[in-house]
Amino acid sequence: MTNPPTNPVPRAASGALSAPSAWNVANALTVLRLVLVPLFVWLLLRDGGTDDGNRLLATAAFVVAIVTDRFDGDIARRWNMVTNFGKIADPIADKALTGAAFIGLSILGELPWWVTVVVLVREWGVTLLRFWVIRHGVMPASRGGKLKTVLQAIALGLYLLPWQSVAIIHWTAVAFMGAAVIVTIVTGLDYVGRALRLRAAAKRPLP
């Protein structure tokens, strides 16, 4: 006589997976990026930005921070380390880093202020748009938005190098910054359109 099959334990009865702790590697990388921001600003502005050693150290700090931005999200998703803290701190760290770089370069007179203003208005404007429509849906990062981030990182990294008197470095930096500004504006307008369409769709009466 065979024993009757054992009924599987319902998922609800077995208990839900516990939420990941905020104390994890992904969040540590995000915090490291936040900590690097004031260090980066100090190195960039020290001695009026004219010391090659400080500029190289500032560039190194910027690159390390950008690299952590590349990996913390991947680690969080792959190893189930996504937390509310990470969702809030990660974009803040990103905008703090790039914003500090744009403002610092403009303070040193190496980047026109209108470029910095355009970029910062777009970045914080899109963030406000996301909060504006969050009740109706989430606006994920678009391919254009990801391209914008890459172009900004490359352009800022080139501008931070101390050898701007070398023509090929200077004009390569200018070319990447020009492309970054164009993509920044275009994607910003795209986000405005997406936000308006999302709100309109949410208010449309059901058939």
Automatic annotation (TrEMBL):
Record localization: Membrane
One GO biological process term: glycerophospholipid biosynthetic process
Protein name: CDP-diacylglycerol--glycerol-3-phosphate 3-phosphatidyltransferase
Enzyme Commission number, as recorded: 2.7.8.5
Membrane topology: Multi-pass membrane protein
Originating species: Kribbella steppae
Predominant localisation class: membrane
GO molecular function, one term: CDP-diacylglycerol-glycerol-3-phosphate 3-phosphatidyltransferase activity
Pfam families per UniProt: CDP-OH_P_transf
Transmembrane segments: 25-44, 168-189
PROSITE patterns: CDP_ALCOHOL_P_TRANSF
Enzyme class: transferase
Single GO cellular component term: membrane
Entry's family note: Belongs to the CDP-alcohol phosphatidyltransferase class-I family.
Keyword field: Lipid biosynthesis, Lipid metabolism, Membrane, Phospholipid biosynthesis, Phospholipid metabolism, Transferase, Transmembrane, Transmembrane helix
